[in-house]
Write a structure and sequence with these properties.
two-stranded antiparallel ribbon; 6-stranded parallel sheet; alpha/beta; Rossmann fold; single chain; 396 residues; binds magnesium ion; binds thiamine diphosphate
Length: 396
């Protein structure tokens, strides 16, 4: 396992700044509520025209490159490659869905790639990840083979969940990916439970638990937050606020639209993060991880992000404007990293084109693997279910 994860995570430690768990002095200390970044410091949320207008001067990707890059060339190139793999893999999955090669539900992560890439680079092999059903990018970044993920989308026996989970239920314990979960908010208490196990077993590892903005309205979140703080569990709760739960905007859901405020009811260190920027994600997760490993307990991060596609493949996304989508595309995280790489001569256009070609070939290989794999045997219906005598989670 360590091999696969290390390969995927080698990004983090190639330069002192990248590995500094406290973000090398940048940004607020999340332990100190008084220094938490104010909302205006991060991206405006979708469907917030006034704040959007106030942020009109926000730079396009070309201008977002730092004067001096904060991290090493290896780190930026690794971020670029990881995020391009997520995007190209999902663009292909979208096409295949149109051809009915992939069926059932399929929720794409396109636009949100930095939420995963910046976290994986800040964490360690052995740490656990859990999320909802928008779950293709996490295992890709952790080192699960694209073949196994594509085969799962095709419902083939070679898939990472043996073809029985599909798009919403990827799983790869070997790399620490504890699954995609279909019940909105259902993974939140599970994330706390995984963190409890890490603490109980004194592993020194933590759990990062992702959820959508729709999930923060679930009662289970409040119970999990309460227990996680009481027991100082090593957990990083992340809400990926992409502005919408299916077609319902955050503004239509509650009067509390700055979602990180929800953590304050439990005195949980909580902060907003511009998650269109992979450096910001990395730094916030590194700070939260340091707290967790020091026994200081949970952190709640609100990743301000955006999905470019509809909720699922069947959603034409008519509840939002083209202008809103364009606003976010101008801040595209992959384009921003690409610009940093080129501006600071970490690589040439040709080098990046070679990476793109390699990724394209890798994705194509995964499609061929999935096409040529068998469907699960009918007997598989009776495996991995509670009625099994030796079902792994039931103990006397
Ligand atoms: C308990 C529960 N209620 C309703 C649903 C139906 N449902 C599926 S996805 C979804 C929206 C969730 O949106 P969000 O949490 O913002 O995640 P996103 O899709 O934006 O990543 C809903 C209501 C569900 N799966 N589970
Ligand atoms: Mg959402």
């Amino acid at each position: 396992m360590a091999e696969k994860v290390k390969e995927a995570q080698k990004v983090a430690v190639t330069n002192g700044a990248a590995s500094a768990p406290n973000g090398a002095g940048k940004g607020p200390d999340v332990g100190d509520q008084s220094t938490i970044k104010q909302p205006d410091a991060v991206m405006p949320g979708p469907a917030e025209p006034e704040r959007m207008a106030a942020n009109d001067t926000a730079p396009e990707p070309q201008a977002t490159s730092p004067a001096e890059p904060a991290y090493s060339k290896e780190t930026y190139l690794n971020w670029y490659e990881q995020m391009q793999l997520m995007r190209k893999f999902e663009e292909k999955a979208g096409q295949l869905y149109g051809q009915q090669k992939i069926k059932g539900f399929c929720h794409l992560y396109i636009g949100q790639e930095a939420c995963v890439a910046g976290a994986v680079s800040a964490l360690e092999p052995g740490d656990k990840y859990i999320t909802a059903y928008r779950d293709h990018a996490h295992p890709l970044a952790l080192g699960t083979s694209p073949n196994a993920i594509m085969a799962e989308l095709f419902a083939k026996a070679t898939g990472c969940s043996k073809g029985k989970g599909g798009s919403m239920h990827m799983f790869d314990k070997e790399v620490g990916f504890m699954g995609g979960h279909g019940i909105v908010g259902g993974q939140v208490p599970m994330g706390a439970g995984i963190a409890f196990a890490e603490k109980y077993n004194k592993t020194g590892k933590l759990c990062i638990c992702y959820m959508g903005d729709g999930a923060v309205r679930q009662g289970a979140l409040h119970e999990a937050f309460n227990m996680a703080m009481l027991w100082k569990l090593p957990v990083i709760f992340v809400v990926e606020n992409n502005g919408y739960a299916m077609g319902t905007s955050v503004q239509r859901t509650s009067n509390v639209t700055e979602l990180y405020h929800i953590g304050r009811g439990y005195d949980m260190p909580s902060e907003p993060v511009n998650a269109m920027n992979v450096e910001d994600v990395h730094e916030a997760v590194a700070r939260a991880a340091e707290r967790a490993r020091n026994g200081e307990g949970p952190t709640f991060l609100e990743f301000k992000t955006y999905r470019y596609k509809g909720h699922s493949m069947s959603d034409p996304a008519k509840y939002r404007t083209k202008e809103e989508l364009e606003e976010y595309r101008h801040r595209d995280t992959i384009e921003a990293v690409r610009h940093t790489i080129l501006t600071h001569q970490m690589a040439t256009e040709e080098d990046l084109a070679a990476i793109d070609d390699r990724i394209k070939a890798r994705v194509q290989e995964s499609v061929e693997f999935a096409e040529n794999s068998p469907y699960p045997d009918a007997a598989e219906l009776y495996h991995d279910v509670y009625v099994q005598d030796n079902y792994p989670y039931i103990h006397d």
